[in-house]
C-alpha cells in the first residue's frame, strides 16, 4: 500500500458516521436497515456512506432477499493498520533513512 492509497482510505474512514458504521460492523454482518436505526440521517444518506465505504473496499455487500447485508473487509483494514504503523514507527525502511529520503 502506497501513500496515495493510504490517504484515500484514511479520508474514507475520517467521517464520524463512517467510523461509527465500521465500529458497528466490527461486531458482525448487518443489514442496512439495522445500521440505519442507529442514526438520525435518512436512508439515502446511509446509502451514500455505504457506497463510499464499498468503493474503497472497506466493506462488502450481498443481497439476502430484499435486504442488503454489509460486512467489513478485514484484509483492507488490516493492510491500512499495518501501513499506518509502518509510517509512524522508526524503522530501517523509514523514508528519512532510505537513500532517496536521506539528507546529507
TrEMBL record:
Keyword DNA-binding set for record: yes
CDD domains per UniProt: HTH_ARSR (cd00090)
PANTHER family the UniProt entry points to: ARSENICAL RESISTANCE OPERON REPRESSOR, TRANSCRIPTIONAL REGULATOR, ARSR FAMILY
Protein name: ArsR family transcriptional regulator
Sections of the chain in a coiled coil: none
GO molecular function, one term: DNA-binding transcription factor activity
Annotated keywords: DNA-binding, Transcription, Transcription regulation
Domain HTH arsR-type as annotated: residue spans: 1-92
Pfam families hit by this protein: HTH_5 (PF01022)
Organism the protein comes from: Macrococcus brunensis
Keyword Lyase: no
